[in-house]
Amino acid sequence: MVRLWPLCILLPAFLVSVAANRPPQFPANFVAVKLPEDLPVGHEAFWLVAEDPDNDTLTYGISGPRAYYFSVNQSTGEVKLASPLDYEVKSSGVGRTLKEITVILEDRNDNAPVFKNTDFSTTISEFLPVGTVVFSVLATDVDTGSGGVVVYSIVKIIPDTVENENLFRILDNGSIILEGSLSYNNKSAFYQLELKACDKGGLLHNEFTIQCSTPVFLSISVVDEPDLDPQFVREFYSATVAENTALGTSVLKVEAVDRDRGVNDNVTYTISNSTKPGWFDIGHDDGVIRVSGPVDREQLLEENEEVHVKVTATEQNFNIFGQVAKVSIWITIRVTDVNDHKPEFYNCSLPACSFSPQEAQINFTGSVDEHASARIPISDLTMVAYDPDQGINGTFILSLEGPDTQAFSVSPERAVGSVDVHVLVKNSEMVDYEIKTVMQVEVVATDLGSKNFSVATVTIYLRDINDHRPTFSQSLYLLSVPEHSETGFVVTNSIHATDPDTGLWGRITYSLLPGNGDDLFEVDPDTGTVTVKNGTLVDREKQAVYYLTMQATDGGNQSSTTTLQITLLDINDNPPVVSGSYNIFVQEEIENVSVIIQADDADEPGTNNSRLLFTLLPGPYSHNFSLDPITGLLTNSGPLDREAIDPALGGRIVLTVHVADCGVPSLSTNVNVTINVEDINDNVPIFNQSVYQFFVKEREPGVLVGTVEAWDADQTETNNRISFSLSGTGANNFVLRGSVLGSGRAQGQLWLFPDVSLDYEEQQFLELTVSAENPGPQGHEATAEVNVTVLDVNDVPPTLDEASLQGIHVFENGSQHGQVAEVVAYDVDTEADVEIQLVNVICTKAGVDVGSLCHGWFSVAANGSVYINQSDAIDREACDLVTLVVRAYDRTTDPRFEAYSKNGSLPITIEDRNDNAPYFLPDNQTFVIIPELVIPGQQVASVQARDEDSGGNGAITFSILQADFISTHGTTTPAQGFFRVITSAEASLFTGSIVLVTNLDSTLQGIYQMKVQAEDQPPMDPVLKAQTTLNLFTVDQSYRVRLQFSTSKEDVGAHVEEIKAALIQATRTTVYIVNIQDIDSVTRAQAHSYLDAYFVFSNGTALTLNELSVMIRRDQDTLKKLLELGLVVVGSQESQESDQPKMLTSVIIGLAVALLLVLVIMTVALVCVRKSYHRKLRAMKAGKEARNTAAGVTPLAPAIPGTNLYNTERANPMLNLPTKDLGLEYLSSSSDLDYVSLNSLDDNSVDLDKDSPETKKESAGPLELEPEPLSVVLSGRQKDTNGQSLAFTNPGLDTTDL
To answer: Which of 144, 175, 230, 409 could bridge to 426 as Cys pair (CB 3.0-4.6 Å)?
Structure first.
């Protein structure tokens, strides 16, 4: 005791020392770190930094459920990665020392998409419409962001043909769409699609990486539909059968198949049509055509000995359209011949014979001329021999018999079937009309095979012929006749012909054959007398001798000829005829006349009738010429002078020559000889003036300028003809038109060309030279001066000066006044009086006509000055460009010419003033923020504004003036810096995107209210602004609802769109899904995964757990759909998240207090007793359940949610439904123990598929001798139907001590 006192004294000092040592502290902003999931192991993750108020040496460390991911340098606080991170397994972790640190993993694209389908095969109809979904695949990628977005593609289609390249298309949701038509028979019956799923890529090891799945192959089988008619295996069927074939004989077998190869329906056969009904039938099933009636080839002669049978093949079942599927084909059956007929004769001609038995004959008649040549057939004989048999059976021999067989023959001697029979002359000498007028033969037709024959008698009548011709006594007769004898004058009547034939054949007719002279003479056809036919044509001068052919013809048209020579005797009946005309040209005093008068007499040469004499009849100038009377040569007696000839005669001398013959009486004729004495050009033209002075106004095309005149003393037009020409500068502007005033006198009119006018401003005077000359080699020329003076006319319109029309700029809103421009115009005319006129005003805004809005803004004076009229009215926002259309007008312009210039445009650009403030566009959109889902850099709201100004005056920038958070309790907290605004523009619309800058507290409830300002950016005017208030409604974590599912997270993810659609239908809200995760196997009962989500209305409010539950239960269709998708529990996040961190802290504090107050042994004993008690309690409950359940049998009715118990009525007491468990649990406990199943067997897993069960192994003492209660219960259970015992012994569940 004495030794304890010093300790008691020192105890307060120790306590003071301990109380003075203060703990270190971490910085207040050190709350979380972000790490990429692909951070390599061993690399620096972050640093732990703390400050100690006592400046003691610090030791760093990390503890917690996921602290094993990191290693800490205890001295420096450097934290390195100790185990690989996986975002898809753990999205965040918490490390604890004295400061809770949240480690947030950033996802990396380290996972490839995985296809969820197991059976990649399907069957589709070949009539599947284009655009139909063929198959749907699903691939999931556990990554987030773009790395988790799956894109499907078809890599390859087998068969790999061009036609199949675009046959299928896969949509973004994995649905495969048919893009073309299918055909089982014409295309492929099987397709294989190689599919691949890739994500949209993301960062992996600091590189952008796209992950793709392993390709899968989708097999598509096309189902054949009965849409095609059957088809015969051959395109043509034919067969041969002999006539008189026995009934039932098989002729041909046809076969048809179903073209739908995948259906292959049974086919039956019928005869639907036949050219000979009843002759044939067909087997209904086998398609064999058999003889069913008498077959006679001779009945088929008109059908080409063929029977045509139409066979129809019909499928047993209807096609896809509900119609009978059938096909027909015509079959040709040729009937062969049997020799059962003999040849017979018919009175007809091929091919117009009918060959009916009643038409057969044995008597025939014909006729032939006597002495007909050999091989000439008997005429009027129509005989056909016919044997209806075919081929050798129808072959027969033709021969002749009878009294006159030697005179005739038969053709042909051999024939097949039918033939025209001809009897021919064989010996023409025996065929003589004078000996025998009628002859007779017998034609015999003998069948070559059967030797049967037929006989026909032919009676032949001979026709007499004309076998003599007339003859003349002489071959040539010489005759004569005076020319110009009268018509009917008898030339001769003594020429006759004789013919020994009598009767018709002996009657002779005379005629002249066509030839030279047949139009002058004629012969009497009966007597043969030759007379003049046309006396006017009997002219010796045309032809002196004629040779005619006279013909004598008998009644049989036999004829002979003789020649008649008729000579014409001459008389003086033709006067002399002068050849040609005589028009002689000679030049005076140079040339002489020498011409022979050519004359002829057509009478007989060498007689006085044709001898001629020439004489010159008296005339005014005949004494100047002489004429030879015999030769007719005409010459002049001396030189000829043109001037001595009367000018009225034009230099022409006409002489008359008389020509007469010496016949009796004498005949004569006169001819005129014209002698043209040509003039010589020996005179020069003379102008009536040496100088001409003319005046003409400018701009007058085609006017007469003046007239010049000249004359020539020569009398002939050739020599006194005058032509004018013009020369000198500017002569090409004129045309000189000459005209004759009289003999040797001419004038020339000087005209401007119709398209040419003179211009005073270019040339005022023109000096020209006019020439007058005689054409010809010896022509003479005279000249005169022509002076043209151009008179000025006001003809040129004014011209606007382009430099004065350059655009100007005027500011709006009364910024400028007075004159702003001046339009200048020019006119080259001396008397011009020009003024400027305003023609039009064009008002445009951004290139669009705005009407007459700006018409009064500006005015234009007559002198061209441009003034501002209404300065205050000028508004750029209404009109940004004013175009003044002006022109210049000359008041003194000649009325014939244009007085106005071309229109010019003076553009006046209205410059902008910053006179319009920005304005926000109304937006009824409500912006909602879920802090848990939004991340920095994400847009959360937007505003839009416009400014009617342009350029910098209309450019808008947005800024946030003030941002506050207003909680649901009404308190206001500044939120400056939480948001920023990004300005963007499209055309004149400016958008301010509100972007989150930092993470938001997900526990706060209220509204983020910010004041957004829009201001323009004028370069010189004052800045104009506008403001608006924006409210962002927050949805905090208290509205986060957790849905538990009995399926895995992969299945939930695969059906997330269906789940989301069902929830939207029930709640009419926007569903934001936060997370989908598996539930730890230790804590789950029926649920295997959960889905966290928010349900937000458009006004910013959200659904609570209770409201969501009511809505789901109220919509039975949605409830049923969700149950089918695996929904079992609806709960809040707070009620379902683990309280392990708080419990751990409480345990640590409790243990510390227990160490100071209670012995460690007592604490351990208490904990052990408590654990044993709970284990035994669970064992008792398990025993109770085991007694109620047969071994190996699963209860048919569902259990009460969260337990393994069933109520007595096998019903669900939660929803009071009779036989169906909806599987919903509404949890309100905040402890993880509430999620642990009450089934004591959950801690002792049994795999019935293994030979030896797995059991918990716990250290236990020696086995008790008494039987363990649970084992006794389990051993009493029934075995399964296979006799296998499902009982086992687990020492860990010993309940003996109970």
So the answer is: 409
